[in-house]
Amino acid sequence: xxxxxxxxxxxxxxxxxxxxxxxxxxxxxxxxxxxxxxxxxxxxxxxxxxxxxxxxxxxxxxxxxxxxxxxxxxxxxxxxxxxxxxxxxxxxxxxxxxxxxxxxxxxxxxxxxxxxxxxxxxxxxxxxxxxxxxxxxxxxxxxxxxxxxxxxxxxxxxxxxxxxxxxxxxxxxxxxxxxxxxxxxxxxxxxxxxxxxxxxxxxxxxxxxxxxxxxxxxxxxxxxxxxxxxxxxxxxxxxxxxxxxxxxxxxxxxxxxxxxxxxxxxxxxxxxxxxxxxxxxxxxxxxxxxxxxxxxxxxxxxxxxxxxxxxxxxxxxxxxxxxxxxxxxxxxxxxxxxxxxxxxxxxxxxxxxxxxxxxxxxxxxxxxxxxxxxxxxxxxxxxxxxxxxxxxxxxxxxxxxxxxxxxxxxxxxxxxxxxxxxxxxxxxxxxxxxxxxxxxxxxxxxxxxxxxxxxxxxxxxxxxxxxxxxxxxxxxxxxxxxxxxxxxxxxxxxxxxxxxxxxxxxxxxxxxxxxxxxxxxxxxxxxxxxxxxxxxxxxxxxxxxxxxxxxxx
Length: 553
Ligand code: F6P
What we know:
Catalyzes the reversible isomerization of glucose-6-phosphate to fructose-6-phosphate. It is an enzyme of class 5 (isomerase). GO terms for molecular function: carbohydrate derivative binding; glucose-6-phosphate isomerase activity; monosaccharide binding. Its EC number is 5.3.1.9. This protein is of the alpha/beta class and about 550 residues long. The chain folds into three domains: about 10-75 and about 305-430 and about 465-500, Glucose-6-phosphate isomerase like protein, domain 1 (Rossmann fold, 3-Layer(aba) Sandwich); about 100-290, 3-Layer(aba) Sandwich (Rossmann fold); about 510-550, Phosphoglucose isomerase, C-terminal domain (Orthogonal Bundle), CATH 1.10.1390. About 50% of the residues lie in helices and about 10% in strands. It has 22 helices and eleven strands. It has helices spanning about 15-25, 30-35, 40-45, 60-75, 75-85, 100-105, 110-130, 155-165, 185-190, 210-225, 245-250, 275-280, 285-300, 310-325, 340-355, 385-390, 410-430, 435-440, 445-455, 475-495, 505-520, 530-550, and strands at about 45-50, 50-55, 145-150, 175-180, 200-205, 235-240, 255-260, 330-335, 370-375, 395-400, 465-470. The chain has a six-stranded mixed sheet, sandwiched between helices. The chain has a five-stranded parallel sheet with strand order 4-3-5-6-7, with helices on both faces. Helix 10 links the parallel strand 5 and strand 6 (about 235-240). Bound molecules: 6-O-phosphono-beta-D-fructofuranose. 6-O-phosphono-beta-D-fructofuranose binds near residues 204 and 209.
């Protein structure tokens, strides 16, 4: 067995066997697999904690799964899973462990787990103070609105979970999420909010992120606009690993919730970054979220590879990315409350797997991660699903559905489910020319109209999808769902030999924007960049000035 990151994965015998196998299998039809095997669903589905994972509608046979599992074994997946849970420095470029699993561990054995539980207690007592009205704003009124100011992992996770858990929202408190440096985001959020009863959570692991600091300063100015002597410490708390910076901003040291180097931003919603979740729902809900994720951690850590949901999710993704050269993946939650889930997964998957070199710094010769996108069904059916059905691309899709609705509208919910299942069925089955012609004939079309129209009605089918189902979108089911994708990303990175926990690519844009900010702000005509950038800056300058002049008048 090779150790992860040393042998280029495409040189392994399993990879080569998969290449050959793909050539044999690529002419098969998924629907024929079903026709020939009445046990196909049973053989290609599993029950994980809280989730049913159906992967039978994929272009795979048992041999495909065996070969993919052999690939994972040759990549050293068993050792890599142990290494992550043990706290080894799996994030090798930053020399850090990735211990998000410790954030949801019920144990207090390791130093990290102890810190986690101390912080959970601090969160719990803070949430209690806010929710019972003991913590008040500057005028003595209880807090009614919480604005989380953060971006990336300090925004997407808590915002997505808060939305997903809408049925469990607290009656007293509303949460809002401001991330964009576009001043409209904060300004529009503040409209109609009362400064006396608004609390800001400044969420930034590094406390250096431009967008967050700009918005945090603007929030401070907004509050000070109501009275100069406001006690700001009643309105600002922070979540950060850099408490000195948060204190320098003006936050009371007792109101800073810690975060640690061993928690990556996109894996941090389980930490105090999840504070708005606990505030906006309840501490019990937050703990259930953690326990659902922990159940998935245990499933991932202990299940054999062939019954391991995140392992199979990752291998299926790699199968299409590398053996069919498919570059994209659709995430289609048929649950309105999960409408932010695709955006959350974009960061988790694309920031983790968007890499071109291996952990050793060698050029990666195979595809790493795909383009992740999607939206809530059924809405997507009335827009981009046309391309899924008749476009030339293969877009493997993950359908996510819940057997029950938090509402009492059972008929509408059954329509939702029927649409979800119909989409995966339609993607697989398609419609042949013969079927299209027969359908038009039944509708009474003439021979010549049938000949003209039928080709437009052909749907190739054979498009793969997984379906993930849960009993209900509870906090613990959501925890398990998110954790399954986190581990899927890790498995993929291990097989490819890349680091899933760094994100150096985002730095260049940050560096350049600092220089460009100077150029946009100066009175001089800009000539120091490429012609396009100079022209864009020079187009903006007089218009910014004009706008500022009008504001002053
Ligand atoms: O720019 C990318 C990034 O570093 C993400 O990885 C991170 O989640 C986000 O910025 C926010 O970082 P911070 O929490 O330090 O403000």
